[in-house]
């Protein structure tokens, strides 16, 4: 008998496979198609001939842990203990899985805000716990009335994602005020903050859990070098949590992967000495603006994009089809792959919206727009 009977192949895999089968431009799965920084490649190539190929310590390569602590202090003015409060993970997804498995007990509840990324639910179910899906407002801001109503003494975690995948929405300071009130009301509640796009924000600066000292002792954050440095295939991220929570997360991590790819950790550690992570926002803002300008010539209605490298668009004035049918036809008839938004909702609601990834080179975005104009 399946432990996850209702979970099938992810929508990202489905659409990427369709893109390959139909030779379509793949704007569905969230991976860049432009080159990685030559400096990082040079570091990696040099390290390949050095003695960095054995296990790293379970928590991570010590110099990298130190640099993450310094980056966190520089970015958010939060001092974290690099020996006891940081864990290098095999991508953000492993960090999410390990944290949920470590901290959530059978029959406890975890709040997920829909539309939500698809990796949150499975580890909750595997913990014999209950995911509580609460929809965001129509503009993808948190609906605090509904969140408060869904929270009770049995709620162990609330998972937030800021900047938000799939919508590109970012939280405002007032939302964190409400989150602090919620945490105050429930002494056992822990906040899990997915911040993998933290350095990819545009007009408004990113607000992190790290900015809110009141939440530090009750929160976990997950970040992604894969997203920040265009190296999604390296699958390397990190978790920051207070020591009393991190001790439990490490117990799962050590039996899940034990330690993360050593050469990647050393390479990123060196790269952090020369890279400007704060330039990512401007880099992707140019990509966003370029892509949005191209799509002005289409019949798609573009929703605001405040962060991430995803653009959500409504096709409501083009077709009455459900979003999955529309995205399949977009691949087969127009040669562009996107992601329907309905799979991000527990109830599969159809908002007539689809998501494009604009982390592509300009030529790819131009070719895609030329095809989308024909809709």
Could you describe the 3D structure shown?
- The protein is α/β, with parallel strands linked by helices and 375 residues long.
- It is 38% helix and 15% strand.
- It contains 13 helices and 13 strands.
- The longest helix is centred in the C-terminal third of the chain and has 16 residues, at 280-295.
- The model has no long low-confidence stretch (mean pLDDT 96).
Major sheet description = 7 strands, mixed
Read across the widest sheet, the strand sequence of neighbours is: 2-8-7-6-5-3-4
Globally, the shape reads globular
In which range does the helix fraction lie? 25-40%
Structure class: alpha/beta
**Which segments are poorly predicted (pLDDT under 50) over 5 or more consecutive residues?**
none
Radius of gyration: 20 Å
N-C termini distance: 44 Å
* Beta-strand residue percentage: 5-15%
Encode the helix/strand succession as letters: HEHHEHEHEHEHEEHEHHHEEHEEEH
Question: What's the number of helices?
Answer: 13
Number of DSSP strand runs: 13
Indicate the mean pLDDT. 96
Mind sketching the topology for me?
Elements: H1 11-21, E1 25-26, H2 38-47, H3 62-76, E2 86-89, H4 91-103, E3 109-114, H5 121-126, E4 130-135, H6 144-150, E5 155-161, H7 173-185, E6 190-194, E7 219-224, H8 225-228, E8 237-240, H9 243-256, H10 262-271, H11 280-295, E9 301-302, E10 310-314, H12 323-334, E11 336-337, E12 339-340, E13 353-357, H13 362-372
Parallel strand pairs: 1-11, 3-4, 3-5, 5-6, 6-7
Antiparallel strand pairs: 2-8, 7-8, 9-10, 10-13, 12-13
């Amino acid at each position: 008998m399946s432990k996850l009977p209702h979970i099938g192949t992810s929508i990202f895999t489905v659409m990427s496979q369709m893109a390959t089968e139909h030779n379509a431009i793949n704007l569905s799965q969230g991976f860049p198609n432009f080159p990685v920084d030559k400096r990082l490649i040079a570091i990696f190539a040099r390290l390949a001939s050095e003695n960095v190929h054995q296990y790293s310590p379970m928590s991570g390569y010590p110099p990298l842990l130190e640099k993450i602590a310094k980056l966190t202090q520089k970015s958010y003015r939060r001092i974290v203990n690099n020996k006891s409060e940081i864990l290098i993970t095999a991508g953000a997804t492993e960090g999410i899985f390990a944290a949920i498995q470590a901290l959530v007990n059978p029959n406890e509840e975890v709040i997920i805000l829909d539309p939500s990324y698809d990796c949150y639910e499975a580890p909750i179910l595997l913990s014999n716990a209950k995911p509580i899906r609460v929809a965001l407002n129509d503009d993808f801001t948190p609906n605090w009335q509904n969140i408060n109503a869904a929270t009770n003494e049995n709620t162990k975690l609330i998972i937030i994602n800021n900047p938000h995948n799939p919508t590109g929405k970012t939280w405002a300071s007032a939302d964190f005020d409400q989150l602090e009130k919620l945490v105050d009301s429930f002494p056992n509640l822990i906040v899990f903050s997915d911040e993998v796009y933290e350095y990819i924000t545009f007009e408004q600066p990113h607000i992190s859990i790290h900015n809110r000292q009141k939440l530090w002792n009750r929160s976990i954050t997950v970040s992604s070098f894969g997203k920040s440095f265009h190296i999604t295939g390296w699958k390397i991220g990190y978790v920051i949590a207070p020591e009393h929570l991190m001790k439990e997360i490490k117990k799962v991590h050590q039996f899940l992967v034990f330690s993360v790819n050593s050469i990647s950790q050393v390479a990123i550690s060196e790269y952090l000495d020369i890279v400007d992570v704060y330039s990512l926002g401007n880099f992707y803002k140019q990509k966003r603006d370029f892509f949005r300008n191209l799509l002005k010539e289409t019949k798609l209605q573009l929703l605001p994009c405040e962060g991430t490298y995803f653009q959500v668009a409504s096709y409501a004035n083009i077709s009455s089809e459900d979003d999955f049918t529309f995205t399949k036809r977009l691949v087969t008839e127009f040669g562009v792959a996107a992601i329907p938004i309905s799979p991000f909702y527990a109830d599969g609601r159809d908002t007539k919206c689809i998501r494009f990834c604009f982390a592509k080179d300009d030529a790819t975005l131009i070719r895609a727009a030329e095809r989308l104009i024909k809709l």
